[in-house]
């Protein structure tokens, strides 16, 4: 059995060596992709093009504009004379925010009897992340201006006036760095794509080249065929994981607070599960192109149910149950738990149990499919 598996592994490695540009692309391509994607998504939203319409033109309105500019979220790009240009700028996407300061704003700030001053801020809701970031920045800038105004009116003691004083403490990501959440998730997804694509091409390539029949009539059993196809794939995928992990920690400064042996061992176990998916896809695909299309279809569904784009807790009940059968959801929980929280094995028994269950189920289905190949 061992000699048959080693012979198949040798054949796979020989094919990979002959196509060494593909091997280099598989190893270093995803690493460069992680750098590009993670750098783009880990940056805070800033310099949103902003249109300003100041009807008041007083020192108070200029102070408000300066306060908004100082947040770093807004870049005052357009200075308007009337409101007719606002819809055109927002429709064309040239401006993401429009600030309209009405006449009498400064007088309302200095004279309490005039009334409560109002400022209109129009956000482009077609881009929710940018709109939410702009809303938070506006609220922060206005809160600071209100506090400064209260200090000028009532004296320094006004700065201490508050109904209560909340004590907020952030654990695990003290600086609330976006990269600490997004980069490990993107590492998981890129690793998932690499593992699935490498494995899914194995049997499909044999069928497309016409050599699958030769493998089927050999003494190789289904389990031996799976192991022989899996070993080269898992070697490549694990090397890829180590490179991506080095970029995550070394380049993007994501902390590593947990156990190295635990993380490396669970990553190896997770790759077996995903490679099982890949072998199954490869077994049911007639061509390599069909295998890749199935990988992308499966990946789109797993991305939704992983909890990265949409929190799993917000999904409807049936979809929340379905998310338990998505391996990458459990791996991302484990990966972030070890990196950011320093969690031990006792913190994610459920996730490991689900990975083991899904891996066993996938292997059983793959065995059944490969057995049917002998009669196809």
Task: Give structural notes.
This protein is mainly alpha-helical. The chain has two domains: 2-41 and 178-372, no CATH class; 48-160, 3-Layer(aba) Sandwich (abc type-2 transporter like fold). Helices cover 65% and strands 6% of the residues. The chain has helices spanning 2-18, 20-42, 59-70, 85-91, 105-110, 128-154, 179-209, 212-216, 222-250, 260-284, 288-305, 317-322, 327-341, 349-372; strands spanning 48-54, 74-79, 97-101, 120-123. Strands 2-1-3-4 form a four-stranded mixed beta sheet, with helices on both faces. Strand 1, helix 3 and strand 2 form a beta-alpha-beta unit. Helix 7 (179-209) packs antiparallel against helix 13. It is elongated, with a radius of gyration of 28 Å. The relative contact order is 0.10.
Helix content percent band:
55-70%
Question: Sheet bearing the most strands, described?
Answer: 4 strands, mixed
Rounded to the nearest angstrom, the radius of gyration is 28 Å
Mean pLDDT: 82
Counted by DSSP, the helix tally is 14
The count of domains is 2
Q: Name the strands of the widest sheet in spatial order.
A: 2-1-3-4
What's this model, at a glance?
The chain has helices at residues 2-18, 20-42, 59-70, 85-91, 105-110, 128-154, 179-209, 212-216, 222-250, 260-284, 288-305, 317-322, 327-341, 349-372; strands spanning 48-54, 74-79, 97-101, 120-123. It has 376 residues and is mainly α. It has two domains: 2-41 and 178-372, no CATH class; 48-160, abc type-2 transporter like domain (abc type-2 transporter like fold, 3-Layer(aba) Sandwich).
């Amino acid at each position: 059995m061992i000699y048959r598996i080693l012979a198949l592994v040798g054949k796979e490695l020989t094919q990979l060596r002959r196509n060494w540009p593909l091997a280099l692309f598989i190893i270093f391509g995803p690493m460069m992709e992680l750098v590009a994607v993670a750098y783009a998504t880990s940056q805070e939203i800033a310099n949103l093009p902003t249109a300003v319409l100041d009807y008041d033109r007083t020192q108070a309105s200029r102070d408000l504009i300066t306060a908004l500019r100082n947040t770093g979220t807004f870049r005052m790009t357009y200075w308007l004379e009337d409101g007719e240009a606002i819809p055109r700028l927002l429709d064309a996407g040239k401006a993401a925010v429009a600030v309209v300061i009405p006449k009498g704003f400064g007088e309302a700030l200095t004279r309490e009897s005039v009334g409560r001053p109002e400022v209109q801020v129009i956000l482009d809701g077609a881009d929710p992340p940018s709109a939410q970031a702009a809303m938070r920045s506006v609220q922060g800038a206005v809160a600071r201006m209100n506090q400064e105004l209260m200090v000028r009116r009532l004296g320094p003691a006004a700065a201490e006036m508050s109904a209560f004083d909340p004590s907020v403490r952030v654990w695990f990501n003290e600086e609330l760095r976006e990269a600490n959440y997004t980069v490990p998730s993107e590492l998981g997804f890129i690793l998932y794509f690499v593992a699935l694509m490498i494995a899914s091409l194995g049997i499909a390539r044999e069928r497309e080249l016409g050599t699958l029949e030769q493998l089927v009539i050999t003494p190789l059993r289904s389990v031996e065929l799976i192991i022989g196809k899996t070993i080269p794939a898992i070697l490549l995928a694990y090397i890829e994981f180590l490179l991506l992990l080095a970029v995550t920690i070394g380049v993007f400064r994501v902390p590593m607070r947990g156990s190295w042996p635990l993380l490396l061992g669970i990553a190896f176990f997770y790759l077996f599960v995903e490679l099982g998916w890949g072998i199954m896809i490869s077994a049911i695909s007639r061509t390599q192109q069909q295998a890749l299309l199935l990988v992308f279809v499966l990946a789109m569904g797993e991305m939704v149910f992983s909890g990265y784009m949409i929190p799993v807790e917000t999904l409807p009940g049936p979809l929340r149950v379905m998310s338990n059968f998505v391996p990458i959801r459990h791996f991302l929980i484990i990966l972030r738990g070890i990196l950011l929280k320093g969690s031990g094995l006792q913190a994610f028994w459920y996730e490991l149990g689900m990975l083991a269950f899904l891996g066993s189920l996938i292997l059983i289905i793959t065995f059944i499919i490969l057995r049917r190949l002998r009669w196809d």
